[in-house]
Amino acid sequence: MADEKVSRRDFLLYAMGAWAAVGVGGVLYAMYKTWEPLPEVKAQATVSFDLSTVEPGQIKVVSWRGKPVFVLRRTPDMVQCPDRSVKGEYTVVLGICTHLGCIPNWEADKKIWHCPCHGGEYDACGKNIFGPPPRPLDVPPFKIEGTTIVLGEEGNEYKQMKEKGLTV
Amino acid sequence: MRLMDWLDERLAIRQLIKVMLTEYYVPKNINFLWSFGVLVMLVFAILVVSGIFLLMYYKPDSHLAFDSVNKTIMMDVEYGWLFRHTHAVGASIMFLVLFIHMARGIYYGSFKPPREIVWITGYILFVLMSATAFTGYLLPWGQMSYWAAQTITTLFEKIPFIGPDLVVWIRGNYIVEDATLTRFFALHVVFLPLLLIVFTAIHLYAVRIPGSNNEDGIELTKEEKKHGKGVPFWPVFMAKEFFVMSVFLIFFFYLVFYQYKFAMDPINFTPADYLQTPTHIYPEWYFLAFYEVLRGFFFSQNLGLIAFVLSMFIAAFLPWLDTSPIKSAKHRPIYKILFWIFIADFVFLTILGKLPPTGLYAWLGFFGSLVFFAFFLTLPILSKIEKKKVAGGR
């Protein structure tokens, strides 16, 4: 039958199309994987930091996955925030403005973080108090071991904060 | 002419020359603003040549990039500074020339039927050129380069669901790092220029089918153009273009030799530091207007982002927003006013983009952004009014 001949040709075309789609899919997948971070980047180890080395009122910056993490030991004259503290009077936040990713600077006289790019401000707890930032500074995953904080691992304290939605 | 015959037999080269050059008639009633297409080609050629020479010494590695540009090319390579300044000024001037080229199209209605494909391929070229400028800006690995890349890639974070993962994928790291630099290098040097060349070919081909628009916006037939109302693109029209190019090159090399600093942000002479953001970050002048639209909706981040994306692409839809049967602003008094308000607003937004986004400036940015969109949104209404006028036998 003539019809059958056409449908056989159609079948071949579809089969070829499907096979080509598999090929295109494979190529796209390979391209997608090529742009993934390299294993050495992904495997960047967790960072440990001794909180007791920070003096009251002082800020230390810890580099974690290439991002700055601010460790602030609050003094009593700063705003207090028991729910956002990783431990006692320590504020530990990712030093990346939640607006567009700039790094805010600490203004010691006003006791706030001020983002130079679009004027966002955060208090000593990392809460956004002015400007375009949509949310407080993020709290990175952490685990507390005595006075040492391990960044990149989810400890109990972090999980509790995460459940209350306080980390992001 | 033996070579010509030989080529003609194999490539039909005479036919090609006729279609593209000698029998492509340009109307006589066009002004110098129509020269900017040729100027775009000229600047593109300058960028390719200067880029190739920079490429010979540039090192796409986050440890070496800064010194390869600021030490090797600027100090060690003979005339390296010339190629760098030419490339940087060329990138900047490309946008000036493109903006004028596009504004001429908007003023004289060159986006209207039958030239929609010309407009759209042109707009794709503008977007590709923006991407090329953005990826190229990262390569010197200075502070401004770095933080421009950091903030612009962060924009993708706001895409629902996949955003944060997408950003890591684009950067190849949690932050802008070596992987980002090398892939931007590949895009800037090979991929985007290749696409630019392809779309330029389509753009030039597409404009040869309906031919060039003119000041009156009244179409001339090919016969009319051939007999008295037009001139062949080659050699007659190009003869004038060589004069325009000469004048332009004087201006261009004046900038390269005496005013190159406008294309070189001083902050970019500090090596990239991923732990310290510069006090003020702002894009190059040609993105300031769009950047100001992003900041203009200061009270809502999401609204600002939507407005920003819209501001970059809304002009691509002009053929469907402006459906008035009259083409040229010469015969459209209201459109003429709207056009100049739009141009003034664009300049206003560009200036505001450089100022701090606080207090009065924030509100001015907001109203400026509204005016920007108002231009596009009043066009359908204006089209309706003008259609009635034309139908009523004006």
Separation, N- and C-terminal Cα atoms of chain A: 67 Å
Helix content of chain B: 55-70%
Overall number of structural domains of chain B: 2
Note the beta-strand portion of chain A. Answer: 15-25%
Low-pLDDT stretches of chain A: none
Q: What proportion of the residues of chain B form beta strands (DSSP E)?
A: under 5%
Helix residue percentage of chain A:
25-40%
Explain what you see.
The complex is a heterodimer of chains A (about 170) and B (about 400). Helix content of chain A is about 25%, strand content about 25%. With about 170 residues, chain A is an alpha+beta fold. Chain A folds into 2 domains: about 10-35; about 45-165, Rieske Iron-sulfur Protein, CATH 2.102.10.10. Chain A has a 4-stranded antiparallel β-sheet, with no helix packed on it. Chain A has a 3-stranded antiparallel β-sheet with strand order 1-10-9. In chain A, a hairpin with a 6-residue loop joins β6 (about 110-115) and β7 (about 120). Chain B is mainly α and about 400 residues long. Chain B folds into 2 domains: about 1-280, Cytochrome Bc1 Complex, Chain C (Up-down Bundle); about 280-394. Chain B is built from 16 helices and 2 strands. In chain B, α15 (about 335-355) runs antiparallel to α16 (about 360-390). The N and C termini of chain B lie far apart (about 55 Å). The mean pLDDT of chain B is about 95. Chains A and B meet through loops of A and α7 and α8 of B.
